[in-house]
Amino acid sequence: MKTLIKNGLVVNATGTGMADVLIDGETIAAVVAPGSTLLGFNLESNVDVVIDVTGRYVIPGGVDAHTHMEMPFGGTNASDTFETGTRAAAWGGTTSIVDFVVQYPGENPLERYNAWQAKAAGNCAIDYGFHQILSDVQDSSLTAMDELIEEGVSSFKLFMAYKGVFLSDDGQILKAMQKGASNGALMMMHAENGSVIDVLVSQAIAAGNTSPYHHGLTRPWQAEEEATHRAIMLANLTGAPLYVVHVSAKQAVDQIAMARDNGQNVFGETCPQYLYLSLEEQLGASSDEWGTFEGAKWVCSTPLRSRAEGHQHHMWQALRTNDIQMVSTDHCPFCMKGQKDMGLADFSKIPNGIGSVEHRMDLMYQGVVDGHITLPRWVELTSTTPARMFGMYGKKGVIQPGADGDVVVYDPKGHTSIGVQKTHHMNMDYSAWEGYEIDGHVDTVISRGKVVVDNNQYVGTKGDGKYFKRGLSQYLI
Ligand SMILES: [Zn+2]
Predict the structure, then answer these.
(1) What pLDDT shows up at residue 190?
(2) Looking at residue 421, what is its pLDDT?
(3) 300 alpha carbon to ligand 1 midpoint, in Å?
(4) Counting C-beta atoms within 10 Å of the first and last residue's C-beta, which end of the chain has fewer, N or C?
């Protein structure tokens, strides 16, 4: 099967140019000047399918490096399975995800990795890889880190919050980082001071402050800044590279920027919710159905931050200046009925998470329209850097010969009304993005040479997606 995508503006992280893209089988075979022949070989009359994309952008498929499909959390499971979540991702122009294998205290990381492989196998619409979460850092976990790298799991996530569930103490973090410094693994950190948060939460509940808004108030920016700094110092001490997930506080951004200016391998990720949504909007949220519990729709950790304090503005700026390097979703959806409502009387019982895997490419494209970032930077933040950061670049994250045929045709004159209830494809009974209007549209999504979304139809098949065995981060020497 040969496909020619002609007359498009190809957008890579390095810039834009008019070009025709030839996909042969699962791989991009050539990127050539529009209408050109290859040594007299007429491309158009020698391919099976020609897609004329005049006036539209041709971009590498999105890489969402932070998702939690069917993750067990707080007595329930994230509502998207690998099947529904990856299909929704495809709808939104994302052609690869990196999901998290969960290891709770006492469990064997390798067994958990095998369990996650079994959950995903044969179910995914797009390609997928895995990071490994380590909670308690046992000696066997350190050995497992070497073995998992051989399996293509080259990044390990630790938590400084969620005591008794995920939290690693500083000594455990130190040991894991020492291992990362020696075997080349990228160490990922959920940076919030869990002990401080646990006290603030119990004080709020005791005082009768039980509504969802208090989730944000009890996870203040100081707890994020402090933990981010502590993680940076532990990484500095051990020499491990550090990747801070879902950064939301401007003070944490500044810690990361300072460490980078000092020459340390520290990277930061943010998510669309920290660019667009705020604590004030969560406070103001109310509906006939839910009352002020409406705010539970936006309970996630790290929490939404105050717009009056300027976190969102600072974050857009950090994306432009590269103080923050990439945007993932932290896709971790829960329904309001039967899941979020476990916290009706106590915000600390609300499962933490927002579903966005379908909307990331659109929401970030709106950042181009609004003048925050350039077109190439859009591709860099959502595809190229995630691919490089997690050892997938060359195959993913770029339109070039030899890359996987993961291509999205994006229409800058199109329009997308996102998040209006029941129009999205994520397995959720609400949308955190209801009412958002985007000045662009995902027209066609090609995953390893196969069209999976076209003209507002899903035309792929369950199991199209394959496991991607990642290498070490391509940002590290
Ligand atoms: Zn997460």
Answers:
(1) 98
(2) 63
(3) 9
(4) C
